[in-house]
Amino acid sequence: MFEQLLLSTGKFQNYALIIWLHVFEQQFDAPDRARVIMRFSVEDYSGDPDETVTSQEFYLEQPTTTPDAACAVSGFANLTRQAADRIQAWLPGL
């Protein structure tokens, strides 16, 4: 789902990317306080799928307004938008 959300932005059409979602979780810091975290990596390939051009690992986090499932889902959507922006900023340096 994460990869599909990223690809649906249309920002990465000219790249051969493999996106790995390693961690997405909601962590509870206190009974009334939580945050969502996401760790993922992106591999960019040339025309040869056996040859990795480069890879990058990313880590994002944000506090949630309330420590519940609804805010975790909202946080996931927000972190996915941030992930798309971070990947887009990383790609021109390849």
Helix content: 25-40%
Count of DSSP H/I helices:
2
Number of strands: 3
* Assembly status: single chain
Strand count, sense and closure of the main sheet? 3 strands, antiparallel
Low-confidence stretches: none
Question: Main traits of this protein?
Answer:
Rossmann fold, 94 residues, 3-stranded antiparallel sheet, 30% helix, alpha+beta
What does this molecule look like?
By secondary structure, this protein is an alpha+beta fold. The protein has one domain (2-93): Rossmann fold (3-Layer(aba) Sandwich). Helix content is 30%, strand content 43%. It has 2 helices and 3 strands; from the N terminus they run H-E-E-E-H. Strands 1-2-3 form a 3-stranded antiparallel β-sheet, with helices on one face. A hairpin with a 6-residue loop joins strand 2 (33-45) and strand 3. The protein is elongated. The protein starts with a helix and ends with a helix.
What is the secondary structure topology, with strand pairs?
Elements: H1 2-7, E1 16-30, E2 33-45, E3 52-63, H2 69-90
Antiparallel strand pairs: 1-2, 2-3
Short description:
Helices cover 30% and strands 43% of the residues. With 94 residues, the chain is α+β, with helices and mostly antiparallel strands. The two termini are 26 Å apart.
